[in-house]
Amino acid sequence: QVQLVESGGGLVQPGGSLRLSCAASGFTLDYTTIGWYRQAPGKEREGVSCLDSRDGSTSYADSVKGRFTISTEKAKNTVYLQMNSLQPAAPAVYYCATDKCSGTYYYTGGSWGQGTQVTVSS
What we know:
This protein has strands spanning 3-7, 10-12, 18-25, 33-39, 46-52, 57-60, 68-73, 78-83, 89-98, 101-102, 105-106, 116-120. By secondary structure, it is mainly beta.
């Protein structure tokens, strides 16, 4: 069964850090693109970061550049999103997806997993 499971969300204070994980099962992340997205209540889902595992290239939304880092651990078939210097914001659910991003293009349709919620608040 092809599955992506997000984890690592939680409540963090402004300026803090979190690392999100996206574990893949039923397929390999070796030859695909993996994107992290987020959606706050009442807002559209937006692309945050994209990694192309074929050449290791990465891209980031302007709002997170310099603060977020996407990476992959092939041995665990997992993609991470390291989020530093988190800014106060409405709670958002973060999702990962494969084959929905390319460079700075993020496709927001199709099916999605459960996601993991991130709340940045004091």
